[in-house]
Amino acid sequence: MFGRKKRLWGEKPPFRSDYDAVIIGGGLHGLATAYFLATRHGMNSIAVIEKRYIGYGGAGRNTAIVRANQRTQENLPLYKEALELWPVLTKELDFNLMFYNCGNLNLAHSEAAMKAMRLQVSSARFQGIDIRLVDRKECKELIPALDISDRPRYPVYGGMFHPAGGIVRHDAVVWGLAKGAAKHGVHIHQGTEVRAICTEKGKIVSVDTDKGKINTPRVLNAAGAYSAAISGHMLGIKLPISVLTIQAMVTQPLKPLLDHVVSSGMYHCYANQTLKGEIATGAHMDPWPNYTNQNSAYYIKHQAEALGDFLPCLRGVKFMRCWAGLADMTPDMAPIMDGNDPVEGYYTDCGWGYFGFKSSTVTGKYMAEFMAKGECPEILKPFTLRRFENHRLMGETAALVNYSPDN
Amino acid sequence: MNRLKNLPTLQIDPEKKISLRYKGKSYEGVQGDTIATLLYANGIRVFARSLKYHRPRGLYSLDGECSNTLMEVDGIPNVRCENTPAREGMNVKAQNVLGSADRDFMAFMDKMSRAMPAGFYYKIFHKPASVWPLVIKRIRKAAGLGKMSPDFDMPGAYDEIYPRADVCVVGGGPAGMCAALAAAEQGLRVILLEARPRLGGSYDYRCTQYHSVSGDRNMPLCQRARELAEQVEAHPCIRVFAHTFLTGVYGGHVLTAFQQGGEADHFTQRYVEIRTESMVAATGCTERPLLFENNEKPGVMQPGCAHRLARTWGLLPGKTAVFSIGHDAGIEAAIDLSDLGMEIPCVADVREDGQDPLLLAELEKRQIPFYRGWAALCAEGGKNLKKVCLSTLNGKHQKNFACDILAAAAGLSPLTGPLTLAGAGLKYDSHSGFFLPEDMPENIHAAGHLLGYEYPPAIESSGTLAGLWAAADCGVSVQNAVREISEEMAALPGPLRGSKFVCGPVSGKKTFICFDEDCTLKNTDQAMAEGFDVPELIKRFTSAGTGPGQGGIPGHNLPLYVALSQASPDSSPRPTTTRSPLTPPYLATYAGSSHDMSKRTPVHDFQAASGGRMERVGVWNRARRFSQNQSPKNKSDDATARREIENVRNNVGMLDASTLGKFRIFGQDALKALQRVYVSDMSRVSEGRMKYSAMCNEDGCVIDDGVVTKCGENDYYLTTSTGRAGMTAEWFRFHSRYEKWDYHIVNLTDAYGVINLAGPSARRVLEKITDADVSHGAFPFSAYREFSVQNVIPVRAMRLGFVGELSYEFHVPSSFMPSLWQILEEAGKEFGIQNFGLEAQSTMRMEKGHVILGSESEQRTTLHDIGLGFLWHRGKPEAKTVGASALAHTEKQKGRLKLVGFKTENPADGVPKDGAPIADDRIRGYVCTCRYSYSLKVTIGMALVEDELAAENTRLGIYTNDGFAGEAMPDSGEYMKYARVVPMPFYDPEGKRMKM
């Protein structure tokens, strides 16, 4: 550590014209898949193609919350395993991913919300996940800054507390995975743009980039917000994805104030205190599809109103930085993980919306298995693209989503 | 400390004393002081300790570039004392210290810097894993600056305003004022924002002579500032917001800012959101920090800071000041401070040439030695500055100077924040050494000092020109004026060549590129060595520029330094991203008056007075239930609403259903539109009749249900569920967007109120209030009638049976709702009429097997899944009905969740909660609604279960462990309760009661 510094993910790799697999997108899902392909399946001729720099997109723009309190039994095991992976990967990568297992408290502001939480809580408990319903008093004990009086616009009724969740340093995961992948021979090509994906007789044969052509039998589309455009324009496979801007912000750093992640669906707001002491907060998406990373004026104001209402002491804290990222939303708010259909050798891992961070490592693990063996692992089967043409939505969201007029 | 007196530039009133408390003592200052200048006047030099190393930090800038003067004031952490006005009685505390700012027991951390290279935390603390949770605790305690008490209550009044302008000028210096005047002269509405308490910018504290181009106006710059300010303030078209900080520039030309209130203002701070046609950024420059060892020690400050302290607040920053600068304003400051009484041992300039010869002559006149191509290499001393080592740029020759102030800057840095937020891409300009916009977005302009102009008339002309361009954006013809000014400018000196120097040959160990994060040059080198090769990644890895001052200190130097270090031909400096808010505002300020926008029905108050427990349901406030006693101590509050249910079942009750979506759709193609979005055949509804139907989305999932009434030819009245009302009109329009249909849809949701009268005595109540024939024969079940109540109130009445009793829905204009409500209450008295709320309604409709969308359905639930498939009219062409093809596709699909009714096996098990999963070895569905039925004396419910479990008499296991400490839960693992699938409706299956 104190000695001469080595480049974390090695020297710039040579650009080869043949790889066993090409991964489009140097975000967390792409890097994790590359890492698991190299370490678990002995594939070390892998290229990760990143248009900008690794971690530019959602990987570097999320608010780093991890949890396993999803709604459906198809999703729960995946997120549960993801939580269990953080300590494992920290050790394996020899890079501190800074998993801060502080637990997540979701607030309920009505009896109806408590009921909705009961489904989540008992479904998760049924699968062995550490989570429970709590009453309003316990909410206050967990978050002393919380106003549990009747003064707020939406008084707190209770909530669900999920001790197994927490936060992870998102940049560390990017860099750790890049380091691990590079160590096992993965070539990370930053500043490289994919121009075309070429097929012959229904099979992937190559990928064209601005640095040259790569022959490969396998391509993974893990381009996040840009995945639908790549899939649609380069292969004619339309994905039911709407891309929306999602914003987040941090306050100036404070001494410890929030010991847990606290969130409220009613206020469209969550907050957690990073290890640096900033209160990171965010939540809802802009209600119109777009591909920009621009902030909007109303959003930071909304966030101040919401936080100031249920965590009133934060009214005396300042917002310091606001940023935006893109969320690739599917109609049922569950991802699309698929492969070899309809093009052999073409794999898809996208549509994660705002769940992409917490799921990244476990998804990489199973997508790697999928790509190495050519057989879809059982746990990924429900996430097929065909569910949409069969009108079989996943039910990850209870309510109707309404972010674009065409769904 | 004695204040300088009689300076024309002073902004203090020495007669008005104010005092504040710090470290248990009272300190006195004067009106006009900021907290920091007040403390400085009292000899305080150390204001804070740094984040990581607990190094002492003093006054460095006066405009909030760094966190050196962040303190706790009246319980509010991280107050930027350098530009926060001092107020009588304030209580000020140092933060992030163990002890005091002067004597911080954590100061030993400074010696530990070797153990904390860039990103060290990524590489240790996880071995062994058991250490990490302990380390987290230490890190959290050590990190963060200010302390916030969890029960802190932010004092003050916060307001918000939303002004509209043709031209918004950001920056009230000479360029900004000229821009504002130029645009206002064209008759445009102009808003001028200035961050400091008054207009004037860089003129405001300077006494250098100003000569206008024409030569007829000669006066000190500070006087010229007042002259311009008076013109601006007197101009009827200009609205000045002084002491107002720009926070963001957004799409659609929205600018946000916040204003600091003065003593006489009604607000402490207010949020200002401006919509403008055109924007001029005239934000000027700040001084780019010079990097050398201990470059942030107390006593080291920006030359402008030293200058303004003396000129604006009458405070000489110290006795002896060494200047190490790279710009003419630095020389000017040295001359002026010398004249005001400071000893200036020397001025070192990183530039070999290019200085204003007049300034050099002034230096010579005062016998101040001037060193070309020299810069500070190291500042020394304990907590306070003792001496400075200056050297040539290559470090070969060095000289030491004793001093207590080092005014240091490497040059200037333009404040381009508003431009980058507006979408301008920045490019390194090698002449000025600035990052300047290369592709200016439409209707965005820049002017003045920030473009590199330093000669006053050039600054002013560039402002005038920008103001004219902005006027042109608003459609004013300004060609002649633009030509005139452009010619004038061509004759004036253009942008000056700027210094690009960052640092001399320093070890970098204590050379801070970012003060807030204690990030040194060495840390930056370490990051680059580890492969972080772009400034944006270095920023993330070292956290430089992520502290309270954001990019204020490192924003310009980091990219320059990285480019210098990489020294490759294509490594033109690339700036890091500037993000909003440009100045951090309190959440209280952003929240402003924090409107709570929710809707109340016309009879809200009646219900609340009758003991209604009002709750927010979507945008509405609704009565959940009516209880006699709402005291939390009194447990008689019955959550099951038994009394309300029994009263409806036995007598009569009334419910406010005004939140239902209500629409009129009319026009010759109205029926076509209905046919498109409803699954039923709406052509079969005859005049005066109505039909219950549903809308599906393209997946066949049910999104809305309601009643459509045909009021006349091509004229329909329809209801939607409460939650869907806001989207209904859009849904119709979207699904007929390619048709040229002639129809109109009007949202009457708020225009009409609805009262549901239900119970066996309902007709007898109704008969009392209307002359119309409402007998069963004249007004049968499922019929629609229009009549008047008491010959005045026009009522649209529907005979429906949602709760399973004889029941009417009265739709009346909202203005009549209170009257009708009172009339019904009065008429129903003899029959025992009472209010009922949502809880009672929900239980009763469940007993009838009626669904509430969202409760018995979720996003993926189709019409078939909840047993409403019969509503779908197969005879309609599929392509013409939204969702029809999906309904055909999914009708026989296996593995879907189906809605079933169930009855629990063992009443002693209690009532399973809504949301409990139905499970065997895996989850097979869940309980939607489950209640004890007082009417039937059994526990019944509705659940969505996998189709395999939907057959009658199937045994369902309900998993009831939600870990809720507030409820009695057996610990023995006995979490499964059982129920049987039974047919619905549970209550009055033949429907006799609602048809009586």
Structure at a glance:
The complex is a heterodimer of chains A (407) and B (996). By secondary structure, chain A is of the alpha/beta class.
What does this molecule look like?
- The complex is a heterodimer of chains A (407) and B (996).
- Chain A is of the alpha/beta class and 407 residues long.
- Helices cover 29% and strands 25% of the residues of chain A.
- Chain A is built from ten helices and 19 strands.
- In chain A, strand 1 (21-24), helix 1 and strand 2 form a beta-alpha-beta unit.
- The termini of chain A are far apart.
- Chain B is an alpha+beta fold.
- Chain B has 22 helices and 50 strands.
- The N and C termini of chain B lie far apart (94 Å).
- Classes of the chains: A alpha/beta (407), B alpha+beta (996).
- The interface between A and B is large, with 104 and 116 residues.
Q: What proportion of the residues of chain B is helical, as a percent range?
A: 10-25%
Strand order of the largest sheet of chain A: 5-6-4-14-15-16-13-17
Q: Low-confidence runs of chain B (pLDDT<50, min 5 residues)?
A: none
The CATH topology name of the largest domain in chain B reads FAD/NAD(P)-binding domain
CATH class of the largest domain in chain A: Alpha Beta
User: What is the CATH architecture descriptor of the largest domain in chain B?
Assistant: 3-Layer(bba) Sandwich
Largest interface: A-B, 104 and 116 residues
Cα Rg of chain A: 21 Å
At the first level of CATH, the class of the largest domain in chain B is Alpha Beta
Radius of gyration of chain B: 38 Å
Number of β-strand runs of chain A: 19
Helix content range of chain A: 25-40%
- Poorly predicted parts of chain A: none
The total domain count of chain B is 6
Biggest sheet character of chain B? 8 strands, mixed
CATH superfamily of the largest domain in chain B: FAD/NAD(P)-binding domain
Net shape of chain A: globular
* Percentage of residues in strands of chain A: 15-25%
The CATH superfamily name of the largest domain in chain A is: FAD/NAD(P)-binding domain
